[in-house]
Amino acid sequence: xxxxxxxxxxxxxxxxxxxxxxxxxxxxxxxxxxxxxxxxxxxxxxxxxxxxxxxxxxxxxxxxxxxxxxxxxxxxxxxxxxxxxxxxxxxxxxxxxxxxxxxxxxxxxxxxxxxxxxxxxxxxxxxxxxxxxxxxxxxxxxxxxxxxxxxxxxxxxxxxxxxxxxxxxxxxxxxxxxxxxxxxxxxxxxxxxxxxxxxxxxxxxxxxxxxxxxxxxxxxxxxxxxxxxxxxxxxxxxxxxxxxxxxxxxxxxxxxxxxxxxxxxxxxxxxxxxxxxxxxxxxxxxxxxxxxxxxxxxxxxxxxxxxxxxxxxxxxxxxxxxxxxxxxxxxxxxxxxxxxxxxxxxxxxxxxxxx
Length: 355
Ligand SMILES: [Zn+2]
Ligand SMILES: [Zn+2]
Description:
By secondary structure, the protein is an alpha/beta fold. The protein has one domain (16-33, 80-348): Metallo-beta-lactamase, Chain A (4-Layer Sandwich), CATH 3.60.15.10. It has helices at residues 2-15, 36-56, 65-71, 104-117, 168-176, 185-191, 253-259, 273-277, 295-305, 321-337, and strands at residues 19-25, 86-91, 94-98, 122-126, 155-161, 194-200, 205-208, 211-217, 225-230, 236-240, 264-268, 309-313, 343-346, 352-354. The strands form 2 sheets. It has a 7-stranded mixed beta sheet with strand order 6-5-4-3-2-1-14. A hairpin with a 7-residue loop joins strand 8 and strand 9 (225-230). Helix 7 (253-259) crosses helix 9. The protein is globular and about 65 Å long. The relative contact order is 0.14. The model has no long low-confidence stretch (mean pLDDT 91). The chain binds zinc ion (2 copies). Residues 129, 131, 220, 242, 291 line the site of one zinc ion.
């Protein structure tokens, strides 16, 4: 029953000719689940707020706990999430997966009903680069282990940079092969109907199903690519994470070119400018050369490129939910102060955008 209901929802989505962007992992560097202390702190704050509301006389009658929770800002009762980079983009039956951080595991689990109903899936995995926070979910992507012997014909295509120390194929094999993982990549290849690899380079265009993708090189300690996806309904989704701005006053031309007039740009916002510069009150450790961005540079880029929605992504593992919320509000303020029209959203696990 649950399976057919989920399938119905997916079919309905596919029929409405819209692009669906779904966020499964939004952290950078390393997975960072909430601690027991974090959860206790959130519970206490909600209880305190509820009691204060009760005493204030603002409500008559008092809202139910459920409706009171629904009124709270997202960061109070919930969390932006702790899984690392993974975004699913769907158009009709096409599946594009942007990076394979630990968010790939829960994404994979939701694909099973569709995979069995369609007797197989075709997905394009676009790897910005192969730092661990962008590939670590692959060994835990459940559909990888469904054997073609039971009539499921899965087709996976992996796209990676040409200038890596190794190719995408070698990097993926190296991650899976014993002793670092118990199931060797050659076993996966035996199970799967079709696995192919494709190269990315600066300026390359390629078809990913019905989408046209163009790649642009970003500024990061490993060769890293942003992707601009154009769909048949005219919508443009850009994924450009793990990027350090050269000069916030002069946005990086390749990034601006990728982001130009896009409906959605998902971009690196790991630090505040103070953290990046090593301000004393923010720990005193400069992050120059670490390959990440901050609100001032993002605001300049969003205005220059005329972006509709900017999604702040690759949150620092040390950032609290409250801090991420502040960075979202601050980035919005910066854009508005420049006369920009971009809407700012801090990515959270479960966020869905329909275009
Ligand atoms: Zn990263
Ligand atoms: Zn990286």
